[in-house]
Amino acid sequence: MGEPVTILAFGDSLTQGYGLPASDGFVPQLEAWLAERGAEVELINAGVSGDTTAGGVSRIDWALGDGIDGVIVALGGNDLLRGTPIDSVEENLDTILGRIDAKGLPALLVGYKATPNYGPDYKEGFDALFPKLAERHDVRLMPYIFRGMAQAVDAGEAERAALFQPDGIHPNARGVKLNVAEIGPYVLDLIEDVEARS
């Protein structure tokens, strides 16, 4: 039996598991979801609460240490909260994905969708960033980090508040579980990409 695939989960507080018991965070829940489906994978939690895409640029090189086989990039939410100029967010994510590519590693980019408070032009530009960057770098794209929760709310299965922590920003354990069920198949594809290169 071969060695487990090692995936770096590179993100912000949503990746880090802010406000949750360790076992309920994104990385442990995703690792369990993958294991239930027979994937031999180790996820490394490289989530830093409050991190922006600029912060990601500053730490991506040392995060990509020896033994990393693939990377999940889930940054942009804190840039959105700050109203960071779209050009800056694009440049930073472009740099991060470029450095991953320079290491010869496959990646999965996780998208965000802007809230309407910065206006329609900002929202349109921000939302378009992630598909554009995924195509530019030929990496997989999971379109929306909160897709599992959004689908549950749309289906009337739960009120939005029931899936978030009291801050209204970070998902609770149930919200994480719904999101993991959506991102999981993309990570299985990423694992296949890793195995195809080995």
Labels describing this entry:
198 residues; alpha/beta; Rossmann fold; 5 strands; phosphatidylcholine lysophospholipase activity; Ester_Hydrolysis_Enzymes; SGNH_hydro_sf; Arylesterase; SGNH_hydro
Note down, in words, how this protein is organized.
- With 198 residues, the chain is α/β, with parallel strands linked by helices.
- The chain has a single domain, classed as Rossmann fold (3-Layer(aba) Sandwich), CATH 3.40.50.
- The protein has 8 helices and 5 strands; from the N terminus they run βααβαβααβαβαα.
- α6 links the parallel β4 and β5.
- α2 packs across α8.
- It is globular, with a radius of gyration of 16 Å.
- The model has no long low-confidence stretch (mean pLDDT 94).
- One of its GO terms (molecular function) is phosphatidylcholine lysophospholipase activity.
- Pfam families: Lipase_GDSL_2.
- This is Arylesterase.
Layout: helices, strands, pairs:
Blueprint: E1 5-11, H1 13-16, H2 26-36, E2 41-47, H3 53-63, E3 70-74, H4 77-82, H5 86-102, E4 107-110, H6 120-137, E5 140-142, H7 147-154, H8 173-197
Parallel strand pairs: 1-2, 1-3, 3-4, 4-5
Helix pairs in contact: 2-8, 3-5, 5-6, 7-8
Domain SGNH hydrolase-type esterase: 9-177
Protein name: Arylesterase
Pfam families: Lipase_GDSL_2 (PF13472)
